[in-house]
Amino acid sequence: EVQVVESGGGLVQPGGSLRLSCAASGFTFSSYSMSWVRQAPEKGLEWVSTINSGGGSTNYADSVKDRFTISRDNAKNTLYLQMNTLKPEDTAVYYCAKGIGSNWSKYDYWGQGTQVTVSS
User: Fold this and answer.
1) 117: closest CA among 35, 14, 2?
2) What distance in Å separates the CA atoms of residue 86 and residue 11, rounded to the nearest whole number?
3) 55, 52, 36, 61: which is closest to 116 by C-alpha?
4) Contact (Cβ atoms closer than 8 angstroms) between residue 71 and residue 80
5) Is residue 19 within 8 Å of 86, Cβ to Cβ?
6) Residue burial 3-40, b: 16+ Cβ < 10 Å; e: rest
7) For residue range 8-51, what is the model confidence (pLDDT) as tens digits?
8) What pLDDT digit, counting tens, does each position of 66-118 carry?
9) Residues near 79 by Cβ (< 8 Å), separated by ≥ 6?
């Protein structure tokens, strides 16, 4: 059974940091690119970042570039997102998923999401 479980969300003040984790099981995690995707209140899905299977190549949305860092530990089947200098507009549910870019039909193995709220 495939499982993708995000954790690490919470309430943080503007300028603060959070580290999200995503534990995956039931598929060969190390063979696939993985992404973080977010959904702000009453808005559609927004691609945030992708990392390739080996971890040597990463891509970021312009809105998070230079503030967020995606990484993975294939020995632990875990994906991470380090988020620094958080802004209120980063408030969203963050999802970990197997897929690349913004073609949601090509994604599978979504987690349940973790809420990130940036507010003073």
Assistant:
1) 14
2) 11
3) 36
4) yes
5) no
6) ebebebbeebeeeeebebbbbbeebebeebbbbbbbee
7) 999 999 999 999 999 999 999 999 999 999 999 999 999 999 99
8) 999 999 999 999 999 999 999 999 999 999 999 998 889 989 889 899 999 99
9) 21, 22, 24, 34, 36, 51, 70, 71, 72, 96
d(CA 80, CA 35): 10
Residue found by looking up tokens 């349940």 in the block: 112
Q: Which residue has the tokens 């870019």?
A: 101
CB 34 within 8 A of CB 79: yes
Q: What H or E segment, with its residue span, contains residue 39?
A: strand 34-39
Looking up tokens 């990392």 gives 51
